[in-house]
Design goal:
alpha+beta; rod-shaped; two-stranded antiparallel ribbon
């Protein structure tokens, strides 16, 4: 009786290729998850900045952002959404929110990468309007 060795060669090839395939799938899953997490954080940063622009006071030069209240509104929005943030108010009308966070990996932990960091920001500017048109 003669033994067929074709199955043996396939088994060796499979044993060699399977770990590489698992790592490739893991990279795809985790980088996709990272991109989704960063996109969500970017949207939260933009909305937190928008919330900051609702905190205005009327001064001699017209409406400007109330800096302490604007910062507080943006930080509160980010915190309620599960992120810590840094808020910058500039020019009396622009709020910028920066979020730094990490994405906890699903597959890449198998090769020692347990998290991937990201740093995103969003900004909003308060404008005055008259009859639906921005006015100076």
């Amino acid at each position: 009786m003669r033994l067929d060795e074709r199955g043996l060669a396939l088994s060796v090839w499979t044993a060699m290729a399977l770990p590489a395939f698992i790592v490739a799938v893991g990279i795809g899953v985790d980088f996709s998850g990272h991109a989704t997490a960063a996109q969500e954080a970017r949207a939260i940063a933009a909305e937190a900045a928008r919330a900051a622009t609702h905190e205005i006071v009327i001064g001699p030069a017209g409406p400007v952002l109330d800096v302490p209240r604007a910062r507080s509104a943006a930080l509160n929005f980010a915190n309620v959404s599960g992120y810590s943030a840094a808020v910058t108010v500039s020019g009396g009308s622009t709020a910028t929110v920066r979020i730094s966070s990490t994405y906890d990996t699903v597959f890449l932990g198998l090769i020692g990468i347990h998290e991937i960091g990201f740093d995103v920001s969003g900004s909003a500017r308060a404008v005055r309007t008259l009859n639906g048109t921005e006015s100076g």
